[in-house]
Amino acid sequence: MRGVETVSDTLSEALFEPVIRLGVTGLARSGKTVFITSLVANLLDRGRMPGLVAAQEGRIEAAFLQPQPDDTVPRFDYEAHLAALTGPAPHWPDSTRAVSELRLSLRVRPGGLLGGLQGPRTVHLDIVDYPGEWLLDLGLMDKSFEDWSAGVLARIGPRPQAAAYLAALEPVDPTTRHDEPQAQELARAFTAYLEAARGAGFSDCTPGRFLLPGDLAGSPVLTFAPLPVTGAAPRRSLHREMARRFEAYKAQVVRPFFRDHFARIDRQVVLVDALGAIHKGPQAVEDMRLAMADILGAFRPGRNAWLNRLLLGRRVDRILFAATKADHLHHKQHPQLTAIIEALTREARDRAQFAGAETAALALAALRVTTEEMRAHDGRDLPCVRGSLLEDGRQAAFYPGALPEEPGQLLSPARAGAETWLGAGFKAMSFAPAPLQLKPGDGPPHIRLDRAAQFLFGDRL
């Protein structure tokens, strides 16, 4: 069914109206919902999109929202999220908790010599929003329960967030007869660890549905946990039942997500809260670097030529790694943030480019909520940002500290397993969205969102 659909979609796009399926993902608190809302708003009103060539040249004649093509996928609630960001009492919208989709159709005049020979055509941009935790689950497909358990237990051993789970696991004998209350208790303890690890800034929080269970909460497919197992699993043992549920999770949760959503994506943006990871410390930075490499392992990168798509199915041919919340820094530090995200994703980007995909990394803010100013301190001027603090709404000017000129000053101690940064360190602050007064034709203010759009789909307009 999916193969027939791919062939029909490819022929339809080649002969009639092109469709670009853009996947948007990122780990918790990376700003996926705000990114999609601001992107759509700025494509509908393109006054702030000079970096998108088709908009700068005036070739986009109209943009409008249409019903999405997938009737079984929830619609991305664009109107409600935009109202939350631009209303009289602006606030951050709810975060992504499931797959959603939105279709934005653009009426575009061809550029170059064809512009005078052909009339405008319609290009559909299908934006697919999904949690990054689900994307990391695709790495489980090639692992057995025993391999997964060994890797998880080796990784979480030194972490204080795992102390309660490891204590609950200590008296457990995996070869004894399966006991459902015991299995449920282990699953609850492991889920509590995942929530604490995510709060501490760690990225390797799989299985992702443990954190976003939805209607699967309490089901056997989410009632397993890593065990210290070796050798064959005796019949009816805890080991055997946990392994069976792990395989069921892959077959009934992970594989349908890949088949129905992920395998149909053309372009992908991965949002990264690099500033939050730096604030949490070296271990969070190293964990994020490894997660970026794992995320790319879930993609099928390569060139998405027409004939290849017809014969082999879709492949992701452009991937953008974007460090979000660039407005939390003065623009003088944006080059350092860009260099850091490039270094963090170097391994992932090299693998994608080797497979034929085009990759890029940049620092952006989908919604700018701060202003910049210089403030004198101890005889020198500090580049600060001013905004409304999220916790109490007070206006405050904030200097987070200086990011290093050389990314290796962050990555080297992170790779070495350092627990804290040497020197001054870096502090992150949470800002609330500011009230907006938008001029007609202007979308919400942003930083480099137009450049991100040009890389992701500007070549198709």
Topology summary:
Blueprint: H1 2-15, E1 19-26, H2 32-44, H3 53-56, E2 60-66, H4 78-86, E3 100-108, E4 121-129, H5 132-136, H6 145-156, H7 163-169, H8 180-199, H9 238-260, E5 267-272, H10 274-280, H11 282-298, H12 306-312, E6 318-323, H13 334-344, H14 346-354, E7 358-363, E8 371-377, E9 380-389, E10 395-398, H15 408-415, E11 431-432, H16 449-457
Parallel strand pairs: 1-4, 1-5, 5-6, 6-7
Antiparallel strand pairs: 2-3, 3-4, 8-9, 9-10, 9-11
What does this structure look like?
It is a single chain. This protein is an alpha/beta fold. It is built from 16 helices and eleven strands. The protein has helices at 2-15, 32-44, 53-56, 78-86, 132-136, 145-156, 163-169, 180-199, 238-260, 274-280, 282-298, 306-312, 334-344, 346-354, 408-415, 449-457; strands spanning 19-26, 60-66, 100-108, 121-129, 267-272, 318-323, 358-363, 371-377, 380-389, 395-398, 431-432. The strands form two sheets. The protein has a seven-stranded mixed sheet. Strands 8, 9, 10 and 11 form a four-stranded antiparallel sheet that branches. A hairpin with a 2-residue loop joins strand 8 and strand 9 (380-389). It starts with a helix and ends with a helix.
Ranges where pLDDT stays below 50 over 5 or more residues in a row are: 302-313
Distinct helical segment count: 16
The helical percent reads 25-40%
Mean pLDDT, nearest integer?
A: 86
Strand portion: 15-25%
Summarize this structure briefly:
This protein has helices at residues 2-15, 32-44, 53-56, 78-86, 132-136, 145-156, 163-169, 180-199, 238-260, 274-280, 282-298, 306-312, 334-344, 346-354, 408-415, 449-457, and strands spanning 19-26, 60-66, 100-108, 121-129, 267-272, 318-323, 358-363, 371-377, 380-389, 395-398, 431-432.
